[in-house]
Amino acid sequence: RRLLLLGEGNFSFAASLCGAAGTQVVATCYESEEEVSRRERAVENIRRLREGGAEVLFSVDCTKLKDYFVPAKRKFDCIYFNFPHCGRKSGVVKNRELLARFFHSSAEVLTEEGEVHVALCNGQGGTPADQPRREWHNSWQVVAVAAGAGFILSHVHPFKAETIHGYKCTGYRSQDKSFCVEGALNHIFTRSTPLLYCKPMSCEIELESQKVYFQVPQVLVDKINRGFLELNSNHPVRTVKEKLTAELSQAFPLQNIDPCIPLLHQGHLNGVCHSNVFWTILSPEKIPNTEEMSNAVLFSHGDRDKNGWVKVQEGGHISNQYCLRPSLLPYAQAVIQRGTFVPGTLCVLSGPVFRKCLITPYSMPVFHEMVCVCAVNKGTETNCIQMLVKNIETSIHSLHQTVSSCKLNISLQEATSSETTDLDDFAAFESQLSKIQYFICMETNTSGSYEKGTCVGVIRTAHDELVSSELVVVLASLNLDLLAMLICGVSDWRMLWTSDTRFLCQFPGGELRLFKSFSLYPPSYVHDVSFWVPDGERFDEVAFHTIARQVSGEMVVSIQLIDSFQQPESGRQSLCYRLTFQSCDKALSCQEVAEMQLLFRKEIKQGLGVTLR
Asked: Residue 546: which H helix or E strand, with range?
């Protein structure tokens, strides 16, 4: 491993690393050799370094690192910069600028898997790890500054000077004086995967024995055909699904179901608001992958009929409308109507479903649904529900115990209960599909008390219209993504869809483990937008949130209405929303967010017809 040390004061830190097996040390400082030699013990440390085979360089500017190394020797596995400072009484702004230029310079000489270690005095970094924590504006904002160069904070731990043999800090106000390092922290940064700017895409499918193409909504381009549930997948969502199926097979005979469930649903789903589903454009010929075509799918104002359906011209006639399937329930009902369906057996269907929704912590525009279907004799449906829930509960408890020691509570709440009046997005959409009897809620106990339960599934029954007058069908719908999150301690649903290999590496062979984030304390950025709503139109908030998802690549984590005003004379309505941008896995800079905000303003003006203020 090649180690590069910057800003050494008396080279005592470098000397402590020299001689370690398998390392090659390059130690540098900003001052000349003559200046450094006047510092206490510097000459001795430099001699030790050279005798140990290390390279020692002087007058090295940390903001121009590639200038000091030929291309063949330009890549380092680890870069150390302990207690950077502009010198003398420079303020936080100058030191932020120094760090920003340093990180950009480091990116040019660091290996792809390399690390950048930055030690800062207590409070300087501006992260929650600092105790006490400074106000943001009075800190060096190290994570936000590093994000500008494509780095994320992956680890932070105390800088224990007393454990470093021979180390003595120096350089207080550019003098040969020590300074307080009590409470200092070492921040370890790694490269982030780049922000995704996905090109519009179309998919080829076979529909009614005819090959057709459909335009993928831009917000779903990076989430279509990811194969989380395929046999060779190690994704925790698949592990949860397989464990649940195995547990249920102990109580019910399972019936194999054709896994080729159509990705598109034809027509309208009764009771479901058309603005909550992703309608798409079909074509017998390949659709050009253009931004204009992608926006046509998102907005489609001119091509919709009175019900909001997209009209598609195929072979001289208007076809039925298609949308990306928002639920597996219609396919479960089709399974029941098959002549091969055997009452008493349990059929399991699973796959991704797609729904437009507001931006909230547990609202997902795509997730993997698992539907269990069983037909039983009338009067025995209660026993069937209890058996289903018991086996689901046993399976989830078993999975959770292998991952975490904190307690878990799974409850069955009646749909008429007052506790379920404030439904989360998943439960609210399920309520639109058909009547629900029970909600399956999951609570974790992490701090001595159970947090508010999260709805992870619903149970409904259907009577004689599906099978016969003597049977009742029990259907259980589960959100596999939510289950995987709660079991493995994944706090952000977007992490399940990350392209960063450091996520799946934590689940070798599909083994469920407690997830440890590789991006700590990601910076957040706030922008406001205000506009006049078109006269006489109802403002479509779901479309507003969907545009925010699309233009930011899912970087918007919160949208809040902070002001509403109606002009007395004209009756025009003005709305002001606050958007919070934050990434869970990638470096996100303030400049990138500013560009997203400008694009967002442009798209809501074009797509929703609002007048920006």
From this structure: helix 541-552
Position with higher pLDDT, 265 vs 79: 79
Task: Judge whether residue 34 has pLDDT over 60.
Answer: yes
Helix axis angle, 480-488 to 236-248, nearest 10°:
100
* Domain finish residue from 191, 216, 246: 191
Residue 434 lies in a domain: yes
- 483 and 595 inside one domain: no
Distance CA 356, CA 363 (A): 9
Identity at 470, one-letter amino acid code? E
Q: Which has the closest alpha carbon to 95: 66, 59, 134?
A: 134
Torsion of CA 348, 507, 107, 147, to 10 degrees: 60
* d(C-alpha 456, C-alpha 477), whole Å: 9
Same domain, 131 and 236: no
Residues of the chain above pLDDT 90, percent: 51
The rounded distance, in Å, linking the Cα atoms of 445 and 92 is 41
3-state secondary structure (DSSP) of residue 270: coil
At 294 the three-state DSSP class reads helix
- Note whether 108 and 186 are same-domain residues: yes
Average pLDDT, the chain: 85
Quote the domain boundaries for residue 120.
Answer: 2-191
d(CA 350, CA 368): 7
The two structure tokens encoding residue 113: 């898997």
Which segment of 79-83, 143-147, 176-180, 394-398 scores lowest on mean pLDDT? 176-180
Q: 310: which DSSP letter?
A: B
- List, as one string, the DSSP characters of 497-533: G---HHHHTTSGGG-------SS-S---EEEEEEEEP
Question: Bridge-partner residues for 157, per DSSP?
Answer: 186
Q: What percent of the chain has pLDDT over 70?
A: 88
> What residue has token string 């002087």?
58
**Residue 450 carries which DSSP code?**
B
Q: Token pair for residue 38?
A: 């006047």
Bridge pairing between strands 24-28 and 2-6? parallel
Q: In what order do the strands lie in the sheet with 322-324?
A: 264-266, 322-324, 279-280
What does the pLDDT read at residue 446? 56
Which SS3 state, helix, strand or coil, does residue 247 take?
A: helix
| Phi and psi torsions of 408, nearest 5° | -130, 140
- The count of domains in the chain is 3
- Whether 608 and 295 have beta carbons less than 8 Å apart is answered as no
Query: For 215-261, how does the pLDDT look when each residue is reduced to its tens digit (9 = 90+)?
Result: 899 999 999 989 999 989 999 999 999 999 998 998 889 876 766 78
Model pTM above 0.70: yes
**Is 444 inside a domain boundary?**
yes
Please state, in angstroms and as integers, the Cα–Cα distance from residue 564 to each residue in 530, 531, 542, 574, 576, following that order.
Answer: 9, 10, 17, 6, 6
